[in-house]
């Protein structure tokens, strides 16, 4: 069965200083939307005039990926509070520009059970309690704003709490179901540069009724003007095959 596919580009691939300028480049490459990046310390909220101008011009900006120094599952209580405030702000910004979703991992680069010292300073039960509290608050805020908060699983070397879809699903069952798909191949490069069976992946997404954007979040194997159009064409061919 043939399916339409919507592909979004994260901002870091694109030329330009504003979302409107980056959208022009994204269209030239063959993308359908932008995925924004949100730094902490109020940076994303400070972009609101720029983003509202882009939204008024019709730029599709359905999702934002967090790019902060600390996250809602941090070991430090003050950093958790700050991350929670930043994420609530990002959700509110997305609501103002007609966006759909903001995403965050539980943590990044803070601790891994696969690398020394191996023993976490917090128990699994304490991890779960902290994440349930944080994402419970974020889910309530997102619901009030009419947008979605998404929990992003990371690999076992980047984060010790949420490493698999099953980990994320277990937590989401206790709070709320959330959804977004980001793309990178088995080697973290653009789709088509590794060994992932993208045909099977896309068919699985269609089978569960996924119809939103698929966002490129990957490194590139070559020049942006060469590798991204080739990857995009391949993904669209698979979607229509």
Query: Would you list the SSEs in sequence order as H and E?
Result: EHEHHEHEHEHEHEH
Give the CATH level 1 class: Alpha Beta
Helix content: 40-55%
Count of distinct strands: 7
Structural class: alpha/beta
Report the sheet with the most strands, covering strand number, pairing sense and barrel closure.
7 strands, parallel
- Proportion of strand residues: 5-15%
CATH fold descriptor: TIM Barrel
Overall outline: globular
Q: In angstroms, what is the radius of gyration? A: 18 Å
What's the short story on this structure?
The protein is an alpha/beta fold and 241 residues long. It has helices at 19-29, 43-46, 48-56, 77-96, 124-145, 165-174, 198-207, 224-240; strands at 7-10, 33-39, 63-67, 101-104, 148-151, 181-183, 214-216.
